[in-house]
Design brief:
The chain has 416 residues and is mainly alpha-helical. It is built from 15 helices and no strands. 24% of the residues are buried.
Length: 416
């Protein structure tokens, strides 16, 4: 049964403590006191700038001058208007001549500098550089008119994420945890999957929370009593980073059955952020998976199957060192082979920078993970993807091992 979010009872209340509260619920700022203009002591009323400047004085002087000036006849008006037009034309011509002289002088200076240095004058660079993506591999053409999708920089963005994920490569850290083991971590991740489903959080939140948990456990020795607190706090931080309306501490206190106190959450949140140097923008495989599925023109069912494999991999401690982009590529390749949609295409290799030979070992490990018997204590992911909303991909049978090996050995392999 989904956990219901509690209403936030800690609302901000404005209290008047020695300061007046204005009509807009804002505290009045203490200015220099002015002498009141009424017996009740109300502030002095004024129109804009009248009592701060000499606007009224200037206006009065202008009125006096206008009254003393002689009245203009109709002939005088015509002459004045003609003179004003001639003045405008002369100013415009003079301005154009000055601009032309300045441009000619600038060109002569640039040519002289270029000749002294032996360098030819530089050509004007285009405002936006042309894409280097081959036309047959350009999957962002259909979104060229949508500036929110940034189609001109989509590949560069994911190439940057690939470079950035090298900063967050982990190793097997469990040997440095005297009170933990791989089974405890699996139970924690399985519970975090249930939390993400019950709170209806984004999948990116779940993946980032798992990353935060692994990175914190890799640098800090903890006891098993605080393991759920670490996972809950990591989910809280990830929700603040990814969600538009993240759950609060009260929600996590509720799902933890009040095992921990609010202050413990605050202390753990500070410890995790300080341990990661507040750098929590960690690349996650889910983002790469959606990108590569778009490149492969995969259906939603095939993408969901790849997501199922990728989410199952979160439970496996031996897959923690894998790069997010590599894991996403391997999950998609296994889903394509299982759905009998072919193998690793040149377009996928271009956008992911992974060859079929590089992905084959990881695909075999993922296949072995799916073929092994499921742990009865870790059924959250399987139950989640057995629902009709997720096309019941958890019940899709695996391909035969010979078919898998044939697809991994031949880049041009196609399933009949």
């Amino acid at each position: 049964m989904p956990f219901s979010r509690r209403e936030n009872t800690h609302c901000c209340e404005s209290k008047a403590q020695g300061k007046g509260i204005g009509p807009d619920n804002q505290e009045d700022v203490h200015y220099i006191k002015r002498s009141p203009s009424s017996p009740q002591g109300a502030p002095k009323k004024r129109s804009a700038f009248v009592d701060l400047t000499n606007t009224k004085t200037v206006q009065n002087e202008a009125c006096v001058k206008n009254s003393k000036a002689p009245k203009k006849t109709q002939s005088n008006k015509v002459v004045i208007k003609a003179n004003q037009n001639n003045l405008k034309v002369s100013k415009h011509v003079f301005f154009e001549e000055q601009c032309k002289k300045a441009e000619d002088q600038t060109d002569r200076v640039d040519d002289s500098i270029s000749s002294d240095l032996g360098v030819s004058p530089a050509k004007e660079q285009p405002a936006v550089q042309e894409q280097k993506i081959p036309e047959e591999f350009d999957v962002d053409q259909e979104q060229s008119g949508d500036c929110l999708m940034s189609p001109e920089y989509a590949k560069e963005i994911f190439d940057y994420l690939r470079d950035r994920e090298e900063k967050f490569v982990l190793t097997d850290y469990m040997h440095a945890q005297p009170d933990l083991n791989a089974s405890m971590r699996g139970i924690l991740i399985d519970w975090m999957v249930e939390v993400q489903e019950n709170f209806e959080l984004n999948h990116e939140t779940l993946y980032l929370a798992v990353k935060l948990t692994d990175h914190y456990l890799s640098i800090t020795s903890v006891t098993r009593d605080s393991l759920q607190l670490i996972g809950s706090t990591a989910m809280l931080i990830a929700a603040k980073f990814e969600e538009r309306c993240p759950p609060g501490i009260d929600d996590f206190l509720y799902i933890c059955d009040d095992t921990y106190e609010r202050q413990e959450f605050l202390v753990m949140e500070r410890n995790i952020l300080q341990g990661l140097n507040f750098d929590i923008n960690i690349p996650v495989p889910y983002r790469f998976l959606r990108r590569y599925a778009k490149v492969a023109h995969a259906s939603m069912e095939t993408l969901t199957l790849a997501r199922y494999v990728c989410e199952l991999s979160l439970l496996e401690l031996e897959l923690v060192p894998e790069r997010a982009s590599c894991l996403a590529s391997a999950c998609l390749l296994l889903a394509l082979i299982t759905s009998r949609l072919g193998g690793w295409t040149p377009a996928l290799q271009h956008h992911s920078s992974y060859t079929l030979r590089e992905l084959s070992p990881l695909v075999r490990r993922l296949y072995a993970m799916l073929a092994s018997p499921a742990d009865e204590n870790l059924r959250a992911v399987e139950n989640k993807y057995s629902h009709k909303v997720f096309f019941e991909v958890a019940s899709i049978p695996l391909v035969h091992i010979e078919t898998l090996e044939a697809a991994l050995s031949d880049p041009d392999f196609t399933l009949d």
